[in-house]
Design brief:
about 475 residues; alpha+beta; Glutamine Phosphoribosylpyrophosphate, subunit 1, domain 1; Rossmann fold; 2 domains; 7-stranded antiparallel sheet; 6-stranded antiparallel sheet; 19 helices; about 30% helix; globular
């Protein structure tokens, strides 16, 4: 079970079907994106140029009660957002969609990602007398768009002007009084895709949304592409900065749902391939193989198919942990205890292989080994369906400092001893290309290799990010 925080999920819809309830469709879509964020959610609806919205803490039912949904009405354009999970308190101003008024009317915006030049952009805007209500990247982008809009003739030009100034990883959807706009960063680090529900167009983080809504996947938004949807249809604009592409490899390892297809690669297939490669690289005499829910399961199935060792459920995950528990201080130990339980019936007396997606701090892996051995496992062998996670991700919503990453400080043998496993093995770094070999763009594996696609040489960056309330 990865200790890396989930990514946010974004959704936007432009209605062309009179019988479509745009609020209901957005609400249902957010359920398909719930895995990308559990700390908060919001919906904004554009009805004839007036934007009405509601956002709050918690998972979908808690954040978006029916009484508030009824108040939103049934407009032409809507945005939805789920906020990633965190053990820290989240400032209410950072919940999305962000809705603001400016000289041209109203604007709503939500995003997934992180800007590497956030401090510089914010300092510049502060010098221009901007008044911030949050510490998030989204508000910086909104201010840049609003400022550019006063100097340009169209919202398209304003968005292009704003994104030309930002650096980092982002997938954003926004709406003006008459248009739905989606933007993906020039390297394609964060995913974004385009689809249809009936005759209405949708821009969202993952293709699983279309499947769950009975819609149709059209294509991925290209790196550096801006999609504009209005009464005249779909319009595409490409950023001239597009060059090297670097989709986050963790979308396949952890962030995305297994029923999504990201840039030409099935997430399910990528995870099963990782498991098959683990079986070839780490042969272990064992009785059963199991996966840590949720993201280790598909890799465990792949390991079982390749090795012939029986797959069995070894761990049960509690999926109903609410916001109040997640926000408890010093709750890591409590969370681990309540999130997972060993299935003694399958484990007792067995030599067990456990496959997880990654190891960050090592505490969760240590807890899993203890759980399984208390349940009577004779041996516990831990295999990780990714290479050692050694480097912070500065392109994520949240960055774990390098000093807290166990693989940056300890060898595989030392980690194995720390977590108490009988053996420990990782997927080789070279195997990453194999698990996503059909991907139609490049990918970023900096968390494993240290080869960042953007300049992260600023040594104070970790301190700057720790001060941001995401």
């Amino acid at each position: 079970m990865s200790e890396l925080h989930d990514e946010c999920g974004v959704f936007g819809i432009f209605k062309n079907d009179d019988d479509l309830n745009i609020v209901e469709e957005t609400y249902l879509a957010l359920y398909s994106l719930q895995h990308r964020g559990q700390v908060g959610a919001g919906i904004a609806v554009n009805n004839k140029g007036k934007i009405v919205y509601h956002k709050d803490y918690g998972m979908i039912p808690e954040a978006l009660p029916e009484s508030e949904l009824a108040r939103l009405g049934n407009g032409r354009i809507a945005l939805g957002h789920v906020k990633y999970s965190s053990g820290e308190d989240v400032d209410r101003g950072n919940l999305a969609p962000l809705v603001m008024r400016y000289i041209k009317g109203q604007l709503a915006l939500c995003m997934n990602g992180a800007l590497t030049n956030y401090p510089e952009l914010r300092d510049d805007l502060n010098q221009g007398a901007a008044i911030f209500q949050s510490n998030g990247d989204t508000e910086v982008i909104a201010y840049l768009i609003a400022r550019a809009r006063t100097e340009t003739t169209t919202i398209e030009e304003a968005v292009q002007n704003a994104v030309s100034k930002i650096k980092g990883a982002y997938a954003a959807v926004l709406m003006s009084p008459g248009k739905l706009i989606g933007v993906r960063d020039p390297m394609g680090i964060r995913p974004l895709c385009l689809g249809k529900i009936g005759g209405s167009y949708v821009i969202t983080s993952e293709s699983c949304v279309f499947d769950s809504m009975g819609g149709e996947f059209i294509r991925d938004v290209k790196p550096g592409e801006m999609i504009v949807i209005d009464d005249d249809g779909i319009h595409s604009y490409i950023d001239d900065r597009v060059g090297k592409t670097a989709l986050c490899i963790f979308e396949y390892i952890y962030f995305s749902r297994p029923d999504s297809v990201i840039d030409g690669v099935s997430v399910l297939k990528a995870r099963q391939r990782a498991g098959r490669l683990l079986a070839r690289q780490h042969h272990i005499d064992a009785d059963i193989v199991c996966g840590v829910p949720d993201c280790g399961i598909e890799s465990a199935i792949g390991y079982s198919m390749e090795s012939g060792i029986r797959y069995a459920t070894g761990l049960i995950k509690n999926k109903y942990i609410g916001r109040a528990f997640n926000n408890r201080k010093n709750n890591d130990e409590y969370l681990m205890r309540i999130k997972l339980n060993a299935l003694k019936y399958n484990i007792e007396g067995q030599r067990v292989i456990v496959i997880d997606d990654s190891i960050l701090k090592g505490n969760t892996s240590r807890h899993i080994v203890e759980l399984l051995k208390k349940a009577g496992a004779k041996e516990v062998h831990i295999l990780i369906a990714s290479p050692p996670f050694k480097n912070p991700c500065y392109l994520n919503s949240d960055s774990t400092p390098k000093k807290n990453l166990i693989a940056s400080e300890k060898s595989t043998e030392e980690i194995c001893k720390y977590i108490g496993a009988d053996s420990l093995g990782f997927l080789s770094a070279d195997s990453l290309k194999e698990i996503v070999k059909e991907c139609n763009i490049g990918f970023c594996d900096a968390c494993f290799t240290g080869n960042y696609p953007l300049d992260v040489s600023d040594t104070s960056r970790e301190d700057k990010y720790s001060q941001k309330i995401k």
